[in-house]
Amino acid sequence: MRGIVLDSSDYVRWFRQSSPYINAHRERTFVVAFSGEAVAAPSFPNLVHDLALLSSLGVRLVLVPGARPQVERRLQERGAEIRYVNGLRITDEAALACVKEAVGSVRVEIEALLSMGVANSPMAGFRMQVASGNFVAARPLGVRDGVDYEHTGEVRRVDEQAIRERLDSGAVVLVSPLGYSPTGEVFNLYAEDVAFAVARELNADKLLFLLEREPLKDDRGEPWRELTVAEAEAQLARLRDALPAELGRLWQGAIDACRGGVPRVHLLDGRQDGALLLELFTRDGVGTLLTANPFETTRRATLDDVGGVLELIRPLEQDGVLVRRSRELLETEIEHFTVLERDGMIVACAALYPHRAEMMGEVACVAVHPDYQRHGRAELLLKQVERQARSQGLAQVFVLTTRTAHWFQERGYSTTGLDQLPVARRELYNYKRNSKAFLKNL
């Protein structure tokens, strides 16, 4: 939001909209990877201040910086040869010396910026610890297709316990793209591979890459905002020949990370000032989000699902959370339902009832099986029915609830009066239930 002048009402509105995300991100583990180009940019202090802000809000941060331009500058100064094969540097003795210097210089610069506490800094009044160390064990990449990569290596193991101990102490952890062997050798690592390995070992909640390019776009020229793993694989297969080798490798690594247990991987244009905050604290974000959904499918309900939906919602009806529906009524309304199926079992559902005359839709019957709660499934279904509403040309969605007001408010719904609801829905309103109405603009 820097560079944008906000009046007081705009600022208050933005801050209120960001507050649910502040709560959602607290005590979560994020791995943030950024390039050496980002470190060299004049705006880099802004990025570091944004990272410090995340830490002050309770986010457990692991940073993985690259150092390619810093290494190349040192090689050029010494007249050494710069050699790449398949996007990977061949690291001879001269290159390794430059890698050590560059990585050390980047580490010191980041630590210095994170340690700032002067009065004219955005970090004023907040002190933080920065921890770095030999967290990554590596082995040589060796000879591949007849090419000896010498001191270029690959990740062998991540000391996740040591990283967790630093995070538990409140420190920001800095993991450089260097790896160490039991025999004392040092290897130059691909920073993105380090980020993937660290995120997987920590079971990080998010892995965020700040790239030196804008997000990939679809055939209509619109940036991809959210892709499942299956969708990302399909797009990568379609575009592989057109993508630069490094970008294709990054996308494949992101897909593999999702399949390996990282629930969300974000690809951002790191050149955009404030991209990290805009991605994490606004509803739609500014980058591309890859998400994993193992063994689960979200789809429109059919008549065959009536029994499963009834079994799912019956306890909530008995508890008064949901309005009671007969089997006959549900059979006539099943086309409005979306279900989440896991290995043949309906574990969650939600419904969208359109009121096209008013360009509004009612979100109803959001339910998740008790064994599968607290893992974001209700939010997944809510987003799905909101997308359905947009695709149908609806401008707003509303919900009537007696127990889950805060949950909907945290997802962008605002209190509204009954007079703002469609006429047909007002006529069916049950005053005995005294449900509260909430509205969201799409």
Provide structural commentary.
With 442 residues, the chain is an alpha/beta fold. It has 2 domains: 8-291, Acetylglutamate kinase-like (Carbamate kinase, 3-Layer(aba) Sandwich), CATH 3.40.1160.10; 296-441, 3-Layer(aba) Sandwich (Aminopeptidase). Helices cover 38% and strands 24% of the residues. The chain is built from 15 helices and 23 strands. The protein has helices at 8-25, 36-40, 44-56, 68-77, 93-114, 160-168, 191-202, 229-239, 245-259, 275-281, 306-318, 327-333, 377-391, 405-409, 423-427; strands at 29-34, 60-65, 84-85, 88-89, 130-132, 136-140, 143-144, 147-148, 153-158, 172-174, 178-180, 186-188, 206-211, 226-228, 264-269, 288-291, 296-300, 337-342, 345-355, 360-368, 396-401, 414-416, 436-441. Strands 5-10-2-1-13-15-16-14 form an 8-stranded mixed β-sheet, sandwiched between helices. A 7-stranded mixed β-sheet has the order 17-18-19-20-21-23-22, sandwiched between helices. A two-stranded antiparallel ribbon has the order 3-4. Strand 20 (360-368), helix 13 (377-391) and strand 21 (396-401) form a beta-alpha-beta unit.
Helix and strand layout, with pairings?
Blueprint: H1 8-25, E1 29-34, H2 36-40, H3 44-56, E2 60-65, H4 68-77, E3 84-85, E4 88-89, H5 93-114, E5 130-132, E6 136-140, E7 143-144, E8 147-148, E9 153-158, H6 160-168, E10 172-174, E11 178-180, E12 186-188, H7 191-202, E13 206-211, E14 226-228, H8 229-239, H9 245-259, E15 264-269, H10 275-281, E16 288-291, E17 296-300, H11 306-318, H12 327-333, E18 337-342, E19 345-355, E20 360-368, H13 377-391, E21 396-401, H14 405-409, E22 414-416, H15 423-427, E23 436-441
Parallel strand pairs: 1-2, 1-13, 2-10, 5-10, 13-15, 14-16, 20-21
Antiparallel strand pairs: 3-4, 6-9, 7-8, 11-12, 15-16, 17-18, 18-19, 19-20, 21-23, 22-23
Helix pairs in contact: 4-5, 7-9, 8-9
